[in-house]
Amino acid sequence: MLVQVSDRLTVADMEGCLPIGAEGPYAGVVHAAKHPCHVTVLGYKGALPKDHPEYLVVTRGSHRILNMIDAPTANLFRPELFTAGMDFIQERAGEGPVMVHCNQGLSRAPALALLYLAKRAKAIPGGSWAEAKEAFLVRMPTFAPGKGIEAFLEAQWEQLA
């Protein structure tokens, strides 16, 4: 699945994803998926030690890989993950289109795209999570944020930039 949510930003699921290290039509790819992306690129099983330098974020060329799961509660999300994703999208969008993907393409990736469009690109209203979500649903009606990511973004909306 590929959903173009702006002229420079596409949301994808695993089937639409460009593999890590592959070059293609995108200036950058954000992989918002611990499994299989973060696990595969670092070659670990189970949990990575929290003091590992790439515990949260890995960058390999035009690919940024986030150690992100679709957690059922907000406390498993970290602002640094969203900031790292938005920073990379902003940097790469100046060079060409960017893809953001997660496993199903319905929660983490579109939430990150929404956050970027509201907070950085100012392409959708960003006064509140509810306002941004309503505007984003026009672009991607299949957006279905998990309970954890929705609670996190609602609680952290003002702090995320």
Description of the molecule:
This protein is α/β, with parallel strands linked by helices. It has a single domain, classed as Protein-Tyrosine Phosphatase, Chain A. The protein is 35% helix and 16% strand. The chain contains 5 helices and 6 strands, in the order E-E-E-H-E-E-H-E-H-H-H. A 6-stranded mixed beta sheet has the order 1-2-6-3-5-4, sandwiched between helices. Strand 1 and strand 2 (9-12) form a beta hairpin. The model has no long low-confidence stretch (mean pLDDT 94).
Brief account:
The protein is an alpha/beta fold. Helix content is 35%, strand content 16%. It has helices at 34-42, 79-93, 108-119, 129-139, 147-156; strands spanning 2-6, 9-12, 28-31, 57-60, 63-66, 98-101.
Outline the secondary-structure elements.
Blueprint: E1 2-6, E2 9-12, E3 28-31, H1 34-42, E4 57-60, E5 63-66, H2 79-93, E6 98-101, H3 108-119, H4 129-139, H5 147-156
Parallel strand pairs: 2-6, 3-5, 3-6
Antiparallel strand pairs: 1-2, 4-5
Strand order of the largest sheet: 1-2-6-3-5-4
What does the largest sheet look like? 6 strands, mixed
Question: What is the C-level CATH assignment?
Answer: Alpha Beta
What do the pLDDT scores average to?
A: 94
Q: How many runs of DSSP E, i.e. beta strands?
A: 6
Uncertain ranges: none
* Gross CATH architecture: Alpha-Beta Complex
Number of helices: 5
Distance between the termini: 28 Å
- What Rg do the Cα atoms give? 14 Å
Which secondary-structure class do the elements indicate? alpha/beta
Helix content: 25-40%
Q: What would CATH call the homologous superfamily?
A: Protein tyrosine phosphatase superfamily
Order of helices and strands: EEEHEEHEHHH
* Total discrete domains: 1
The shape is globular
Question: What fraction strand?
Answer: 15-25%
* CATH fold call: Protein-Tyrosine Phosphatase, Chain A
